[in-house]
Amino acid sequence: MSRHDTFAIATRGPGLYEFTDRARGFCAGQGDGLLTLFVRHTSCSLAIQENADPEVRRDLTEFFHRLVPPSDDPAMAYLTHTYEGPDDMPAHIKAALLPVSLSIPVLAGRPALGTWQGIYLFEHRRAPHAREVVAWFGR
Questions:
Q1: Who's near 83: CB < 8 A, 6+ residues apart?
Q2: CA distances from 76 to 4, 25, 37, 81 (A)
Q3: Long-range contacts of 63-67 (CB under 8 A, 24+ apart)
Q4: pTM of the predicted model, to two decimals?
Q5: Helix, coil or strand: residue 71
Q6: Nearest alpha carbon to residue 104 among 48, 25, 41, 61
Q7: Which residues pair with 41 in a beta bridge?
Q8: pLDDT of res. 1
Q9: Cβ distance 25 to 130 under 8 Å?
Q10: pLDDT (tens digit, 9 = 90+) per residue, 22-45?
Q11: Smaller CB count within 10 Å for the chain: N or C?
């Protein structure tokens, strides 16, 4: 048995947007299986990360901003894909470094996450976006 759905996630700029509760709701009552999540965009990614302390999310966002700064930073002068704004190509680079899909075991209808783990969409663009994450459950 399998089922699928698409989660719409509204973002307001760079950062991690948790959607663990939506994934749990999707898996509820499904028994044992595998949850696969896939983001349908090239400038954001997915992450499983700590959901207890918001400083973790802020620090991760800042780390990736420093790792891959905007294209108007002198260190990024080599970039040629710049016509969609200084955050566009860096967002593609971050999405290439981070996962765009996740596979999570589901036990008794619940994603088998650890105590402090949450599921996040990691937005890499500055402007608000309407993102889509495809969820698939199968046995």
A1: none
A2: 40, 42, 31, 11
A3: 64/94, 64/122, 64/124, 65/14, 67/94
A4: 0.96
A5: coil
A6: 48
A7: none
A8: 84
A9: no
A10: 999 999 999 999 999 999 999 999
A11: N
